[in-house]
Here is the input.
Amino acid sequence: MRAYAKQLVLIAMLLPGSVLPAQQIGKYVPINAGSDADHAMTEINAATDPAQKLALIDKFAAQFGNGDMALVANETYVNYYIAQKQYDKAFEYGDKLFALDPGNFNNAVNMVRAASEKGDTEKLLSYGEKAQSIMTAYKAAPAPEGIAAERWQQDKAHAIESNQDNFNFVQQAVYGGVYQTKDAAKRADQLMRFAKISPDSPYAMQAMGVAASSYQQAQNAPKMMEVANAILAKDPNNLGMLLLVSDYYGEKGEQLDKAESYAQKAATVADSAARPIDVPEDQWKQQASLQKGLALSTLGQVNLQKKNNAGAVQNFLAAAPLLKSNDTSYARNQYRLGFALLNLKKIPEAKAAFTEAASVNSPYKSYAQDKLKALPATASTRKKPS
Here is the structure.
């Protein structure tokens, strides 16, 4: 007997055309070799003209698509419509297949593939959640009647291993698709939904980190801080979140001791962090340099808020060369430096800092220019006593 209920599934997001057969999770529908249904499927698979193939699938569905064989018919429609990039039709038949077999993992993978190719993030999340729930339920499922528990555990372990590449694909596709959402607030909400759906995914923490930054971009500070603090509760050395939280508090002038502590910790983590294998050495050096610079600039801002202007100048000066690769961060640092120098009555040095902030294209350019216009043309000096 041959089983046509097995899907061809993706093994990697970067190679969407690569497929491998995986052991079925869901109903198994055998077709007797040499039967009329077998001959019909052979003819469908051999057809190269799309119109002819669809006509043969329609014929198969009309003749054999009853009972469990409806699974085979719907699955064949799904594969056909995905190949033809008619994704709405693929969803239609995929949902029909789920109605007959809610635990069909391969169908969930195909639906994720279709949603990914179409760029439909809502369906991507929905079908990704379906895939996760199917896998979770399958892992917890007791042995069917008539199958020994030990044998069932072995079979189940083999099926899970066989489908691991497909499960990885689902998580990559959902995370990657949601990451591309243009609207920052919507992207953040979708990323948090993904992290909730797949808490054990290697992408879950990344998704939460991007969500926190996206909430910041959307100017939703309460949600940004909620997510950032949730990440730090799980990973106290998360460099991105240490920088995000300390910068927020430093800029707002709130919880300055915590901001200082987090910024100091971020500077230490930036110095000691190991380079990921997939990141080139020069790129890693630039990234580590930028992160250390951000930590020092935040320390300078905390010093400024605490009226420690000398300490602020020291930290801003140390941060400046490290931030050169990022115009906005560098300009903000120099803009802040200008205020610290003004507080110390060092007008020429302050002018130089504001001039540097205005020299690069960033949101701080106009602010620095306005500040320069407001400063006196020359520094006032006192006459020495005769």
Remarks:
- The chain has two domains: 1-180, 236-378.
